[in-house]
Amino acid sequence: MTTTNTADKQPQIFVYDDIHPEDGAMLQALYSRSPDSVVNHLEKVKSAGSGKFMSSYYVGYGHASIGDCGVTTIFIENYSMLAAKAIQDNALYSGQEASTRYLDFAAQPMYDPYNHPASKAILDGWMDLYNSSMPKVKEALAKKHPFDATQYKSEKIWQNAINARAFDILRGFLPVGCTTLFSWTTNLRQARDRLMQLKNHPLPEIRTLAQDLFKTLYAKYPNSFTGEEMGDSERYAARSAYYAEQAERDNFVSVQNLLDEERILEEDLEELEQGGMVINKTELDVAGLMDFEANAMNTRPEGANLNRRLGAYGVYQLSFLLDFGSYRDLQRHRNGICQVPLIDGGFGIYPWYLNQLKDLLGSEYAAFEAEVSRLLEAIENLPADVKATPMLNQYLYPMGTSVLTQLAYTVPQMVYVAELRSQKTVHASLRPIAQAMGRVLKGDFPDMSLYIDEDADTWTAKRGEQTIEAKVA
Question: Which domain of life is it from (predicted)?
Answer without folding.
Answer: Bacteria
